[in-house]
Amino acid sequence: MRRAWFETVIEARRRAKRKLPKSVYKALIAGSQKGLTLRDNVAAFDELGLTPHIVDLPTEPDLTTTVMGQELSMPVFISPTGVQAVHPEAEVAVARAAASRGTAMGLSSFGSHAVEDVVAANPKTFFQSYWVGTKEDMAARAERAQEAGAVGLILTLDWVFADGRDWGSPAIPSAIDFSTMLQHAPEVILGGKFSYLWEYVKRLRLPELSVPNMVADPSEEAPQFFDAYGQWMNSEQPTWSDIAWLRQRWDGPLMIKGITRIEDAKAAVDSGASTISVSNHGGNNFDGTPGSIRVLPEVVDAVGDEVEVIMDGGIRRGYDVVKAIAMGAKAVMIGRAYLWGLAANGQAGVANVLDIISDGIKSGLMGLGATSPSQLRRENLIIPPQFARTAGEAEREN
């Protein structure tokens, strides 16, 4: 019998593939369009070398840091991802796992569990929202999150509704009903994905595709994912003055997520953001955007003295985190990595992934002779020529 514990994030991915129906698994790994950005997010880390020491190495590094006012046990926390139909407990299981490892939870407004339940599982919860509806709708959603106890707001702005995916990302059903069950039954039965089905059967529930955090009042009926998505598609695009308006109505730390250009980083600072995330939406949005780690240094150099700079995209191991911190990030968010852990073994699988990454950070710090992530510098890396990508240089020079 295969043991529940796994040793690498890639093993978590393999187990997720074995357990999940094909369409569900493909939704976890696909990127937009040709997948250029998705691949570069990961490949860019492979181009960076490390410069280790061999004597007088520290053995007890301190990984703690503070992000958006929350003390974290390590410079890694949970990136918000929508409808996590890989496990019945979804965001609640992820929140509990993160809490058990002393780090924060990012909850998507398109998540399948209510913010009240997620905050109860992890008080260090940051609520994420896209710009959906009117300014008043945005403020009402943020107010609900704050009343529930969310300690930070993540505003994700990098989305252009690109739906073409060359490698066959499956269509997401509008709801899980009898018709949908019949349609997908062959891939569950013929694919032998009974353990996935059993997780839901034993809890007497079906995979959930409603999004309860898209309503201002938790007593209101939650819309289905595609109903909320349709509202989002038809919402007016926000301006930076709209962002500043929302900043005035949110009493707490605010992260702007999706930064790749220098002038956007500066505008986020001017709008009142306390934190920015250098991010390309995990390769799920505008294909052809460079890997996040490539544009990170220029953004850090431009605004790193004014706001916390976080990075997400392509993190698969602790050494990736070490490289991101050395490049100037204060911390990173992980997405696919924890979803694979969730699919592989529920809450314990997410905790397993966090432990793998934490152990890798400790190993990396030890080899580089650092006692904490804050001591890491670009001098710890071998950075090849033309590694970095500059976005917005012309505007910066002007």
Can you describe this structure?
With 398 residues, the protein is an alpha/beta fold. 42% of the residues lie in helices and 12% in strands. It has helices spanning 9-19, 22-29, 36-46, 90-100, 115-121, 135-148, 178-189, 194-201, 225-233, 240-249, 262-270, 292-303, 318-326, 336-368, 393-397; strands spanning 49-50, 65-67, 70-72, 76-78, 105-108, 125-129, 152-156, 254-259, 275-278, 308-312, 331-334, 381-382. α13 links the parallel β10 (308-312) and β11. The chain starts with 8 loop residues before the first helix and ends with a helix.
List keywords for this structure.
398 residues, single chain, eight-stranded parallel beta sheet
Topology record:
Blueprint: H1 9-19, H2 22-29, H3 36-46, E1 49-50, E2 65-67, E3 70-72, E4 76-78, H4 90-100, E5 105-108, H5 115-121, E6 125-129, H6 135-148, E7 152-156, H7 178-189, H8 194-201, H9 225-233, H10 240-249, E8 254-259, H11 262-270, E9 275-278, H12 292-303, E10 308-312, H13 318-326, E11 331-334, H14 336-368, E12 381-382, H15 393-397
Parallel strand pairs: 4-11, 5-6, 6-7, 7-8, 8-9, 9-10, 10-11
Antiparallel strand pairs: 1-12, 2-3
Helix pairs in contact: 1-14, 4-5, 4-14, 6-10, 11-12, 13-14
Q: What is the number of helices?
A: 15
In one word, what is the shape? Answer: globular
Roughly what is the average pLDDT, rounded to an integer? 91
What percentage of the residues does DSSP assign to strands (E)?
A: 5-15%
Unreliable sequence segments: 394-398
The strand line-up of the biggest sheet is 4-11-10-9-8-7-6-5
- End-to-end Cα distance, whole Å, is 63 Å
Number of strands: 12
Structural class: alpha/beta
Order of helices and strands: HHHEEEEHEHEHEHHHHEHEHEHEHEH
Gyration radius (Cα, Å) is: 20 Å
Question: Biggest sheet: strands, sense, closure?
Answer: 8 strands, parallel
**Could you estimate the helical fraction of the residues in percent?**
40-55%
